[in-house]
Write a structure and sequence with these properties.
The protein contains 8 helices and 4 strands, in the order ββααααβααβαα. The chain has about 300 residues and is mainly alpha-helical. The chain has 2 domains: about 200 residues, no CATH class; about 70 residues. A hairpin with a 2-residue loop joins strand 1 and strand 2.
Length: about 300
């Protein structure tokens, strides 16, 4: 079963292989629709709003309240455009697949959800990860952001925690020795590629150790070294589960629609399923995707 047909793409007569034409066409169509609706909402603003302006203001106030309640008044308004745009783009990308292909005569490949293609959710999740961690660095500073991976930490004014600090520092020294030894072996036995990779790993690890220990001395806390790998894995888990949740639900709904449509089209059930999976499920998962991005941001920028 061909879920999303691949059509050849030619730009200035040059073919581009490996691109999914349906995803690209429908993504640009979604962006054009969002630009048109934004222009329609702001082209004639007035003190007595019309229906389009009321809808735009209601949606803006709804997300503004959510952002302010989650991030606080100081940061909520700053992230309102990002969260609202993310929600609208994912919503339109989920819903566009419910439209019938009335442009088949013009060679249109069909209205397919860009979120059915894993590349779209992965790209959106990559944007969210970059925004979340860059925001954390801006709010906490680089040392504060790096320190968050060693939480929960221990107070440094107790004898037990001083022993923990000594053990943590000894463990970091041991890992530094291991990395340095592996770097020397790579430098002697590998080409320039291995030398550059291991050099970056060793340099980053040394820099990380120095920054964390300096920050721990300044704030009087003991870093929890054992939690650092778990926190890193947790952040990677968020980055992986975020796009796959959206992709799995939208793609699964499309597969169900395709199978059922070929089995019981005469009964009239597929149109109902099309509205359910295309509109309701698309709306729910667009909201979930945006709210998860907001929650990840709130966790990272919290003091």
């Amino acid at each position: 079963m061909d879920i999303i047909p691949g059509a050849p793409i030619k730009v200035i007569g040059l073919p581009f292989e490996g691109y999914n034409a349906a995803t690209l066409y429908n993504t640009w169509l979604v962006m054009a629709a969002l630009f048109f609706l934004a222009w329609l909402a702001v082209r004639s603003l007035s003190a007595v709003p019309g229906r389009v302006q009321v809808a735009a203001e209601g949606l803006t106030e709804f997300f503004e309240d959510i952002c302010n309640n989650t991030l606080g008044e100081e940061h909520g308004r700053k992230y309102l455009p990002f969260i609202a745009t993310l929600f609208l783009f994912v919503l339109f990308s989920n819903v566009i697949g419910s439209l019938p292909n009335f442009l088949r005569w013009a060679g249109w490949p069909g209205f397919y959800c860009p979120t059915q293609d894993l590349n779209t959710p992965l790209g959106l999740a990559l944007i969210v990860v970059c925004v979340v961690h860059i925001s954390a660095i801006r709010v906490k500073g680089f040392r504060g952001w790096l320190w968050s991976f060693y939480e929960p930490s221990f107070p440094g004014d107790r004898f037990v925690t001083k022993l923990v600090a000594v053990a943590s520092f000894s463990g970091l020294l041991l890992l530094s020795y291991v990395f340095l030894r592996m770097y020397i072996l790579a430098f002697l036995g590998m080409g320039w590629g291995g030398r550059i990779v291991w050099g970056g790993v060793v340099g980053g690890f040394f820099a990380n150790t120095i920054v964390v220990m300096a920050h721990a001395r300044r704030i009087g806390r003991v870093p929890n070294v054992a939690m650092a790998p778990l926190n890193v894995v947790g952040e990677l888990g968020k980055a992986i589960s975020h796009p796959f949740r959206l992709f799995g639900n939208i793609f699964g709904g499309f597969v169900i629609l395709t199978v059922v449509s070929h089995l019981i089209w005469q009964i009239g059930l597929p149109p109902f399923l099309n509205l359910f999976f295309g509109l309701f499920i698309g709306l729910v998962h667009a909201f979930v995707f945006a709210m998860l991005a907001l929650a990840y941001t709130a966790v990272q920028i919290s003091e």
